[in-house]
Amino acid sequence: MAALLSQNPNPDEMAQLWQIARDAICGLFTDAETSPPQLDQYPARLTRPGACFVTLEVNGQLQGCLGSLVAHTPLVLDVYQKARASACEDQRFAPLTSSQLDALSIEVSVLSEPELLEVRSEEALLAYLAEHRVGVILSDQMHRGVFLPQVWESLPEPADFVSHLKRKAGWRSDDWPPGIEVRVFTVTSIRRML
C-alpha cells in the first residue's frame, strides 16, 4: 500500500498544486488536449495519496466545489481531476464558460485525514466548535454533509454552521439522529485569481 501524504504541503508545493488546477481548467478551453500530470515531474510527497477540494468562484460567487474526503489517488492527480470536475460537473452550477475565466479564482484545499470526534450531543459538538474552527463531516447510514473550514468565514457562529451543515446533508436543522458520526479535519489551502 502506498504511503499517505504525512504532513501538510509547504507553500512551494501548494503553488505547484494550484498550477495543476489552473492548467486542468484552462485546458478545457483550448483545442489541445491536456493530459493529467506526470507523476515523475513532481516531488514524491505530492505523488502520495492525498485528498483535496477545488473551489471555483467567479466575481466572488461560488461556481463549483468538488473534492474527496479520503486519500485514494496521488494528490497531483486528485487535484487535476477535482479541478476539471468543479468546472464542469458540479450539478449545482452551469459548467464554467470561457467568458468567466477573467473573473475566476481557484482555491485548492488539501485535507488532513478526517478524525472521529466522540460527541454525544449537538451541544457537545457546538462546544467543541466554539474553540476549534475545523472542517466537519456529519454522516449516518443515509446522509452526509461536509463543510470545509473556509465556511466559517460566512457562518461564524457554531449553531449556524451546524444547522446549515445538517440541512446540506438532508436532515432538518433541529435533527440530531441516533448514530450520527462526526469527523473533523483541517486544510492547507491556496487561493489565487486565474
Automatic annotation (TrEMBL):
InterPro entries: AMMECR1, AMMECR1_dom_sf, AMMECR1_domain, AMMECR1_N, AmmeMemoSam_A
Pfam families: AMMECR1
Residue ranges annotated for the AMMECR1 domain, each copy included: 12-194
Gene3D superfamilies xrefs: Hypothetical protein ph0010, domain 1, Hypothetical protein ph0010, domain 2
Stored PANTHER family: AMME SYNDROME CANDIDATE GENE 1 PROTEIN, AMMECR1 HOMOLOG
Protein name: AmmeMemoRadiSam system protein A
Classification lineage: Bacteria, Pseudomonadati, Pseudomonadota, Gammaproteobacteria, Vibrionales
Name of the coding gene: amrA
